[in-house]
Amino acid sequence: MRCDLHVHTRHSGMCTVPVMNRVCRESYSDPQAVFETLKRRGLELVTVTDHDSIDAAEELRRHAGFFLSEEVTCRTLSGTELHMGVYGIEEKHHIELQRRRADLPALVAYLNEQRLFFTVNHVFSSLTGPRTDPDFAFFEEFFPGIETLNGQMLAACNRSAGELAERWRKAPVGGSDAHTLASLGLTYTEISGARDAGEFLTGLRAGRGRVHGECGDYFKLTRAVYEIGCSMVRENAWMALLAPLFLAVPGVTLANLFLEHAFNRKWSRRLAKAGAVRLQPSRAWEF
To answer: Was domain 2-285 assigned CATH 3.20.20.140?
Structure first.
């Protein structure tokens, strides 16, 4: 069975770009349209991983083959930000995930107690800001999975994530990270022999996932930004006043590409040189 394990809808909240975070959503995709698009593209299972939200479940829980997941924005002990994928959750789990997301050791302890599978997402991307050596040491020690194929990340970043997962013997997952309908389902995870969502999740935990599909690139990211901008204008016609800013999009996405390359080069080399950062976990991490 196949499932795109990184999917966003209009319930993912506002974007994180300064100023634009007051007027522009992360995604304008309707949950029902997301479901129908994924099924049309041949994916047997559907999940949604909105940022710190499970509101899409209201519209999708009636569908066979749907299971609920979430991308949790959490804070590491170093003070950096992390996006964590958590799969196969229930509403009671969402409440606890949000309550504990500022305390990563407590969050991880809860996930293990509930036997929920979780991953560090886009690990070689600067999307969530800076990273530290202790962050990677924590990932190695306590995270069961790593997102090794993200449909919006550069091929080099995904390649580094795959090598890291193999070196650390972590379970791999892949997903489109689609914020628009265009790239939904073009990157996904497959569990051979799974017959339902339960068996699919069991296969993920056992590390039997195989990732397939596209990486990201300059043109794909630029197109996605334009599509989100157009959706913003359709939702609020007065936002057309900001249309001249669209001229800056190609330059902004090009600058982002260079930042991503630099971030990946720095950390992939650093981890390889340090032997996957064989740091001793801080005693504050013991739980």
So the answer is: yes
